[in-house]
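Database export, one record per block. Field names are fixed; values are copied verbatim from the stored entry.
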Amino acid sequence: MINGNRIKLVTIAGLLLLVIAGSGIASAYSISAHADDRQLEMIKELYGTKMTYGEYWGKVFPGQLAEMKKNLPEEQYTEFSNTVVYWGDDHPELPYGASVWDENGPVNLRAISSEEKQKFRLEDLKTDESGYVVSATDSAVLDKLSAMVSRRTAASPMSGLVLYANDLSKSGSSIIHSGRGSVAGGISSTTLLLRTELYGDGGMVDYHQVYFPNPIDNTKYISDQYPYPINGVFYQSKLIGQSTNPSHSGYTWSYGKLWPF
């Protein structure tokens, strides 16, 4: 079981960091929520339900929602509250999800032309058997994929979401589940939600989510530890990403591992 209330509020250099951006000031605020035992049970009951983040966080993470309302501009808070939760269960034909998502949904990386691979220096791109999940863990590869998505056509730039679920690792007797995500073709009002879910022993055992208001030109990372793995249980993590301005959503899975590993 998950130990106690491990919800935590994360900020960059304090509760609210202001940085100069051009001629104005932009917030670099982020907020993180980790589910305790009670909240994890609530999430399991709500999972798959059509609802907004205002409704969802209002039930599961009311403290974090209140902090967000206090620290975000009203327009940004309203946008978050009205965004419909994406659960990452809309492409059952893709067992591991996809690494790249654009306006048309998951991108088949094997369908990238040789010209595009050469243009964006992706000649050595490797994928899983489905062709949708990148095999390499090198962040430079993910950056190149992001550039490809947003610059495919100079006259009409596209946008997308690039996700990677890191392989499960360990720290002592705890499982570390983590991932990274970036928004291709984002603008100053872009936001990104990342969450990592750990599955094992017949269901979800750990849940962690982070909200990034201004993820432009910067890969965002999410990581958490699950301190109570059971010997002989197969564990696997799911990374879900959801952005606004541009609006994209997608998910990908890590490869599974049998504990202990």
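Remark 1: Helices lie at 37-46, 53-60, 62-71, 74-82, 114-119, 139-150.
Remark 2: Confidence is low (pLDDT under 50) at residues 1-27.
End of record.
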